[in-house]
TrEMBL record:
Residues 58-357 form the Protein kinase domain. Keywords: Phosphoprotein. This is Protein kinase domain-containing protein. InterPro entries: Kinase-like_dom_sf, Prot_kinase_dom, Rho-assoc_Ser/Thr_Kinase, Ser/Thr_kinase_AS. It comes from the Eukaryota.
Amino acid sequence: MSSPWIKRKARLGALLQSNGDEDAEGVALDRILHGQSVIGKTSKTTEIDVTRFTDKDLSIVGTLEYGQFGVIDVVTCSLDGRVYVRKSIEKRFAFKTRDQCNPQIERDILLQALRGNTVWAPHLLCAFQTPTHLNIVMEYAEGGSLWDVLESSPLDGCVVEADLHWWFPQIVSALVWCHSQGFVHRDVKPHNFVLNQVSHIQLIDFGSAAPLLPPRPDGARLVPRRHCLVPCGTCDYISPEVLQAHEEALVALEMSEDEGEARKSRTIDGDGGYGVETDWWSMGAMLYEMAYGVAPFFASDIRHTYMKIMDHKRSLKFKCDPPISESLEDLMRLLLTDRETRLGRTGAAEIMNHPFFDGVEWEDLHIQNHPDGLHLPQFSYVNTQSADSAAPLGSSESQTFSSNSSHSQGFAFSAFFQSSERSGSDLHPTPRPKGSILREQASDYFIGFSWGPTLDAFQASSSPSLFPSATLSVFSSHDPQSTPRPNRALTLARTPFRVISTPFRTPYNYHSVGTSTLPRASTLLRRTAPRRTMSDREAMRQLVDCIGLSARKKVLAAGRTPRGMQRMNLGGFGSVGIGKALRFVPSPIEIQPEMGVIASKFVYEAHASDGGEQSDEREY
């Protein structure tokens, strides 16, 4: 039994001489633990290690997902009995991929959510580290995600416009909050909006967020260019300017040898790259997908998805079925357009004042009750010990999230806490460092990461059970701690979250990741919309290949021979491998001091003669 937290916290403060300052205490704690790893344990460091909050205070209930950058578990805390989410990532991997996935940024944003008491993001409980891993513990939203809303829709993945009027004002508000904290999210998609027990949403997964520069005179807010070199996000929601920024970085890398450092400096160290408008594009793609049941630029072939995104003016089409209002179509057109003219670029007021949002009471969104008939996902509780023999739950054995919610088939979680048959994971082991330098850098780079829990973190808590009802049933608005959110493993016409990602992952988020995510029942794939037979991670990898191919063509058009052409031919993939391609090697992108990305991870390939370029013909 753990000592009461108040007693432990007081002793820890005395040992660290923090005087009640949580930030100072976290820095002091990390410095002592780092010193212990270098010179060994002492009686003081041993007492500190025993007294501080660590994994010993948590019990794993089940794994939500194995992301590309970490593992997300549902846990219970022995200090209050409540359910939380813990995200873990290996330090060396986090250090090597810090431009793609930054746990420190995620921890900072969640801490701002706590301190500002926002309703639009989970609140941080604490952040702590072990010799090998970083851990973030935060509130758990038990209502599933907007991806679950899509997947369980009785309208084949479409969401009726009346429901969109409930969800999207909240989505706008959550993104406005994120931007107001000085960050652009960069991985906006249905999977990253989770539902609480009263059907309000929270934005999650800030690992790929990037800091914003101060507003320009016109109100636009941009990301420092050095943060725009590596593409972040998910294939079907990524904006064209994110792809273009990566292409420009590759071209600058090739041209810098002959043209000196001036060109590279302009590309790498310029005042700003893209800005908050990239989140509004992704929201537009989300809105389109929820209205029509398929992402706006989806194609089974990633090369075609890439071309559709880059040529969005011609490729964006609006269907007749299901019918939508003129205001909804107009909003999507204004979001899925060039960044210079995109709605929201100079301020969210442009979006909030659009006719689609007429009548929205923006100040009261967080206290409004959801409308009657709102479609919500249902989740079935199944005893994991008898999952193999359990019969399907009957109507008397389950209850809906809300008696007024539209019908959807419940997700069965019997397999959720069992080992997956799909044991081949996309989560590759962290590459071993080539020397002790990387180990030392990773060890001290995250000093200051630790934070909390606060002295009063566990005072007003109850001890709910994750499976509170004997009826093994579904989410209910009266059921505080429900089953963990489902995970998904395949890239659907969009991109998954739980297999996807979640919170730590986020950058390259080929998100998804997934393969090692625990499967749910056979109801995982519900929609008949087109789907890809690859993970989101693989989809993103191929998308990066397409960017490299485009960059290579520009280098050749400038009369330059790409420096990598004489390197070993490593073989291509799919359709892109037929021609000359800039291959993305599937290992973390390391950081070069002078540029921010490692050039050696992008290897030029020549599979064909000079006349063997692929056709630029677009097929939609």
